[in-house]
Design a protein that fits this description.
The chain is built from 9 helices and 4 strands. By secondary structure, the protein is α/β, with parallel strands linked by helices.
Length: 214
């Protein structure tokens, strides 16, 4: 998870990431979440009534989540964040974004995340397509070149863009409904149907047999 791959010296000037030791630590980051960890984590979250929010960097990771759903490991709404930060995840290309959107099931909730100067272009495209956005905190420091923005200013900017594109910002109650907080499903089949993915194929031993007459 090399979050420094797309950053320029201008991006990090005046921050801790301009310090070589810090930059090297972030450049060499790994997320230690193998299959066993992910499955156990999902089981514990769901047992505690906590809805997972999947942070995915490319279509391959989305396919892994689909397999978890098809095996009945995840049985709830599909809330996704496409993390276009490079360094092991997709870069901020519209082609990458559109492929991820194309592969996301119709009833999932998809948020788009960029990094530094890529944030506003990507979030504007997301708003225009009816998706959701992430801004503020760690993702960006910049408006135009040389202009620093606080997290509050970034949120205000996203709200302004959303309204310019005739999409009102959700209230807290609307956000809970969009995220389907508290909703769970009985099994893999019910989850797939709720998310808009095709049903699991019947196993060969379960599939009906057709005998051709001589």
């Amino acid at each position: 998870m090399n979050v420094c791959e797309l950053l320029t010296p201008d991006d990090v000037a005046g921050t801790s990431l301009a310090l070589p030791a810090y930059a090297n630590a972030f450049r060499e980051m790994w997320f230690e979440s193998g299959p066993a960890f992910v499955e156990e984590h999902l089981k514990r979250l769901q047992a505690a009534g906590i809805q997972p929010h999947f942070m995915l960097g490319d279509v391959g990771q989305l396919e892994s989540v689909e397999r978890l759903v098809r095996r009945g490991v995840h049985r709830g709404p599909l809330v996704l964040n496409w993390v276009a930060i490079g360094g092991g995840a997709d870069g901020p290309s519209p082609y990458n974004l559109m492929e991820f959107v194309r592969r996301t099931p119709d009833h999932a909730v998809l948020t788009v995340e960029g990094l530094m100067r890529n944030v506003t272009p990507l979030t504007t495209m997301a708003i225009a397509m009816g998706l959701h956005v992430r801004v503020g905190i760690e993702d960006n420091l910049w408006g135009r070149k040389g202009e620093r923005l606080s997290s509050v200013q970034q949120v205000e900017k996203a709200v302004r863009i959303s309204r310019e594109l005739y999409r009102e910002v959700a209230t807290s109650d609307q956000a809970r409904r969009i995220y389907r907080i508290g909703e769970t499903y009985r099994d893999a089949d019910e989850t797939l149907a709720a998310l808009g993915w095709p049903p699991n194929r019947a196993r060969r031993s379960d599939a009906p047999s057709v005998r051709k007459a001589a």
